């Protein structure tokens, strides 16, 4: 038996039909659905008179459209109809869901782990490209389109061609003020937004082992920004401790752990590509352009224009080569999204806000990723720190990460954002997004511009 | 899914790399609950100025000479970002039948194929020829022979055999998979770890 990576092992045990090298039929252990990418799938099922094959392996959340101020008052008629359609669909097909305003509500990639549904060894899909977040637990998790959502609903399977496998080794110990968000932004800046296309990426190394589960999720979350639809990590004691005791954790937990241990990558597993990055050399990262690879260290000058893409990005962002992060005229700070809105993210940001005030020209909003996170933060008094500093403390949802709801960054405004995409118009028409860690975003809110958190830490 | 065998038509070049699905179809149009009518909003931010669908004269799709182009020729990593299948629906509803790019994001590539929109990969030198075609020059995309014919030259392209079979026959994936019911049921019974099954 050739030595295998965790990806190979999980893949192999889910193949129902098909030959290596071609399309293979994979069994799907968990299907998470949300209101935006599922309506046409349910329409297709109804049209063909089909049922959901395994409703109990399907779980619904409402997140993209949720207003974060007055969560039950959805003023946008089309958003309202999409949420109502979802509510009816899950009821008609017998699917459990954390509906808008419910206790369990939150961003899909936050709620699946919180409920214990996300576990090592599972295949997990969702009609959302940030599904790889779940890969932090040692699962094969990836985003799919609506045709594939319909296919999984009807058959609990998917046809997929096995991707190549890449190992990314994070070595070293980061400086204080450098976070897992900087690991992934640093990786993408170094290798590009398409370096992971065609690969499943296994993140490994001492720097990953040292991270908490929450911090690991931030890295797997942004696999798609590296070009890879799948990103995963080997499970360890931290993984098992996180899953243990949650409502959907296996009852035979010890049996499960024994099985999960066997899934870890063999020591001399074979990879199609191997990259390494020493995190001790990383600085806090800030993006200057319109894709996530257009990022630099906070203390470095923005690069020269090398092609039409750079030229267009500088024009859109109204910035120039040679400037640096401190020169960005910020007007908005967004702390939220499936990348960085877990409890540890809010705690870390709050450290830079305690006893301080948000600069007068900055609008700051903080949006916990789930109601669970919101409640936990409130129990610890973290909401108070944000509110006293001048941040708005909101209801959970996707919020200004993509602005499908009322939360949008105003046109031509520069926003320090803990989210995952700085695309043109992503956070609002003509909005200018700068991706960074929660600590960098919080410190920027106080100082009114980007500052190096290593000097504050 | 619509069948695809051969398409003869003109091209339009959009030379940028990393065109993301937020540009192809922005978020405000994802609230629909059906699959139709997305073409009008394709490349909305680039294609229009203001909020009333006033065409941006600087954007290539608004140039009347490209009005009937059914083949989009573009850069690397096309369709990166969000998994929204609305991007494929919008390209198709607008009238595109074929995309020719340097590479694609994995999710977009699958989404295109599921809808009978043919995503072809070509190297830079071939795309340079295509970028410079006159707007009325027709090219032929032939799926059975896996070739693009341009002014007497033929360039081969790759496609996975099962995708090709589904496109040529307009086959619905779910219909195919339901024929595997016995294997799926057997898998559920014997292969799924017991600890994952509720008592």
Q: Counting H and I runs of at least 4 residues, what is the number of helices of chain A? A: 15
Shape of chain B: globular
Radius of gyration of chain B, in Å, reads 19 Å
Poorly predicted ranges of chain B (pLDDT <50, ≥5 residues)?
none
Estimated helix fraction of chain B: 25-40%
Query: What sequence of helices (H) and strands (E) makes up the elements of chain B?
Result: EEHHEEEHEHEHEEEHHH
CATH superfamily of chain B: Aconitase, domain 4
Number of strands of chain B: 10
Biggest β-sheet: strands ordered side by side in the sheet of chain B: 1-8-9-10
Mean pLDDT of chain A: 97
Work out the radius of gyration of chain A.
Answer: 21 Å
Helix coverage percent of chain A: 25-40%
Largest interface: A-B, 75 and 57 residues
Oligomerization state of this entry?
A: heterodimer
SSE layout and pairing:
The complex is a heterodimer of chains A (457) and B (199).
Chain A: H1 6-12, E1 15-17, E2 23-27, E3 30-34, H2 39-48, E4 58-61, H3 77-92, E5 96-98, H4 108-114, E6 123-126, E7 140-143, H5 146-155, E8 157-161, E9 164-171, H6 180-191, E10 199-204, H7 206-209, H8 213-221, E11 230-232, H9 237-243, H10 253-263, E12 273-278, E13 285-287, E14 295-297, H11 308-317, E15 330-335, H12 343-351, E16 363-366, H13 371-379, H14 382-389, E17 392-393, E18 414-417, E19 432-435, H15 438-447
Parallel strand pairs in A: 3-4, 3-6, 4-5, 6-7, 9-10, 9-12, 10-11, 15-16, 15-18, 16-17, 18-19
Antiparallel strand pairs in A: 1-2, 2-8, 13-14
Chain B: E1 6-9, E2 11-14, H1 21-24, H2 44-47, E3 48-49, E4 54-55, E5 71-74, H3 86-94, E6 98-101, H4 106-114, E7 118-121, H5 124-131, E8 139-142, E9 147-150, E10 153-156, H6 161-169, H7 173-178, H8 181-190
Parallel strand pairs in B: 2-5, 5-6, 6-7
Antiparallel strand pairs in B: 1-8, 3-4, 8-9, 9-10
């Amino acid at each position: 038996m050739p030595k295998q990576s965790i990806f190979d092992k999980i893949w192999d045990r889910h193949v129902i039909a098909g030959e290596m090298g071609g399309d293979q039929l994979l069994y799907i252990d968990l299907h998470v659905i949300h209101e935006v990418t599922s309506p046409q799938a349910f329409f297709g099922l109804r049209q063909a008179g089909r049922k959901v094959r395994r409703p109990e392996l399907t779980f619904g959340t409402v997140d993209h459209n949720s207003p974060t101020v007055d969560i039950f008052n959805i003023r946008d008629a089309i958003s309202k109809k999409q949420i109502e359609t979802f509510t009816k669909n899950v009821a008609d097909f017998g699917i459990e869901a954390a509906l808008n305003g419910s206790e369990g509500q939150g961003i899909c990639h936050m709620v699946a782990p919180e409920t214990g549904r996300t576990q090592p060894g599972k295949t997990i899909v969702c009609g959302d490209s940030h599904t790889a977040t779940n890969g932090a637990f040692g699962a094969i998790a990836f985003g799919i389109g609506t045709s594939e959502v319909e296919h999984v609903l009807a058959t609990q399977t998917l046809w997929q061609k096995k991707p190549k496998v890449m190992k990314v080794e994070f070595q070293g110990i980061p400086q204080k003020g450098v976070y897992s968000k900087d690991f992934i932004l640093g990786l993408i800046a170094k290798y590009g937004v398409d370096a992971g296309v065609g690969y499943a990426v296994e993140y490994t190394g001492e720097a990953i082992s040292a991270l908490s589960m929450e911090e690991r999720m931030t890295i797997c979350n942004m696999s798609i920004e590296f070009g890879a639809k799948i990103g995963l990590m080997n499970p360890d004691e931290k993984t098992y401790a996180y899953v243990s005791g949650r409502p959907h954790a296996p009852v035979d937990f010890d049996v499960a752990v024994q099985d999960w241990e066997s899934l870890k990558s063999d020591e001399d597993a074979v990879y199609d590509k191997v990259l390494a990055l020493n995190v001790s050399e990383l600085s806090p990262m800030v993006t200057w352009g319109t894709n996530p690879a257009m990022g630099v260290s906070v203390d470095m000058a923005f690069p020269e224009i090398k092609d039409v893409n750079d030229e267009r990005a500088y024009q859109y962002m109204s910035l120039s080569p040679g400037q640096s992060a401190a020169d960005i005229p910020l007007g908005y700070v967004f702390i939220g999204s499936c990348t960085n809105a877990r409890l540890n993210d809010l705690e870390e940001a709050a450290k830079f806000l305690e006893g301080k005030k948000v600069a007068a020209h900055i609008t700051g909003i903080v949006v916990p990723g789930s109601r669970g996170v919101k409640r936990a933060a409130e129990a610890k008094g973290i909401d108070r720190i944000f509110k006293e500093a001048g941040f708005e403390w909101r209801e959970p949802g996707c919020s200004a990460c993509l602005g499908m709801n009322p939360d949008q960054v105003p046109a031509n405004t520069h926003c320090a954002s803990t989210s995952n995409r700085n695309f043109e118009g992503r956070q609002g028409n003509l909005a200018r997004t700068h991706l960074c860690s929660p600590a960098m975003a919080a410190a920027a809110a106080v100082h009114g511009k980007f500052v190096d958190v290593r000097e504050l830490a | 899914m619509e069948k695809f065998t051969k398409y003869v038509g003109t091209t339009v070049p959009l030379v940028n790399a990393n065109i993301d699905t937020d540009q192809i179809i922005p978020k405000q149009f994802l609230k629909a609950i059906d699959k139709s009518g997305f073409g009008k909003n394709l490349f909305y931010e680039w294609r229009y100025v203001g909020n009333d669908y006033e065409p941006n004269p600087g954007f290539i799709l608004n140039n009347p000479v490209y009005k009937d182009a059914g083949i989009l020729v573009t850069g690397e990593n096309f369709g990166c970002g969000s998994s929204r299948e609305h991007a494929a629906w919008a390209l198709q509803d607008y009238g595109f039948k074929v995309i020719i790019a340097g590479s694609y994001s994995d999710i977009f590539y699958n989404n295109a194929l599921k809808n009978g929109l043919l995503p072809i990969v070509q190297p830079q030198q071939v795309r340079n020829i295509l970028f410079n075609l006159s707007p009325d020059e027709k090219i032929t995309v032939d799926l059975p022979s896996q070739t693009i014919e341009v002014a007497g030259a033929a360039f081969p392209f790759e496609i996975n055999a099962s995708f090709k079979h589904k496109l040529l026959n307009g086959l619905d994936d779910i219909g195919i998979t339901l024929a595997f019911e016995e294997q799926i049921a057997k898998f559920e019974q014997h292969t799924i770890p017991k600890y994952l099954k509720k008592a």
